[in-house]
Amino acid sequence: MTQDADTKMRFLYALRSKGVTDARVLTAMEQVDRADFVKGTFADRAYEDMPLPIACGQTISQPSVVGIMTQALKVSARDKVLEIGTGSGYQAAILSKLARRVYTVDRYRRLVLAARLIFDAQDITNITSFIADGSFGFADQAPFDRILLTAAAEDPPGPLLAQLRVGGIMVLPVGQSDTVQSLIRVTRHETGYDYDELRPVRFVPLLEGLGQD
Ligand code: SAH
Description:
Layout: H1 5-17, H2 23-31, E1 52-53, E2 59-60, H3 63-73, E3 80-84, H4 90-98, E4 101-106, H5 109-121, E5 127-131, E6 144-149, H6 158-162, E7 164-174, E8 181-189, E9 192-201
Parallel strand pairs: 3-4, 3-6, 4-5, 6-7
Antiparallel strand pairs: 1-2, 7-8, 8-9
Helix pairs in contact: 2-4
The structure holds S-adenosyl-L-homocysteine (SAH).
S-adenosyl-L-homocysteine (SAH) binds near residues 60, 84, 91, 133 and 135.
């Protein structure tokens, strides 16, 4: 299924009605076709505002939640962004339209390899994807201007806080995995961190170590 003009308009309208109002974020989400990241039986539901299953028992997030998180991250064209939880690669592709460079990591090799194929097919050249436990961040490329977690931690992981540039922003869901979690925004200042609670969300948990697949 490809995105005709009518489907695209309804998709963008739904995003706006759920609070995604930032013009740059909406443009980026218009450029990235979610159907490319949803395979098989669920592909025909790609434009509905719901999370959908992907390989390895994971999920591609709900578009309005992707929009709200991206908006909360306030990405600028000069930014170097780290995403933890590549999943389908959809969120990373959107970030790639807004940032200078995106590093994205997942603990499942299979997901990272599949996402890489899509990035290549779409000639996206500013994403570096890798397989690792993202809780430790990516020290080689730190500090990051922006960090986004798309899996829920009980607390913001220490290594990620340390790899955030002064003035940088990190957005993440926090809380127990099988209950409602809070989306929070952490802003790093010269002397510490500010925490804002944004809204309730529900994400898969941030797990330790590498996945089997
Ligand atoms: N951003 C994705 C959705 C992610 S679902 C998208 O746009 O499709 C959450 C992902 O986080 C899953 O793929 C899961 O494997 C990954 N994940 C969970 N714990 C992780 C960890 N410690 N390090 C890296 N990835 C992790």
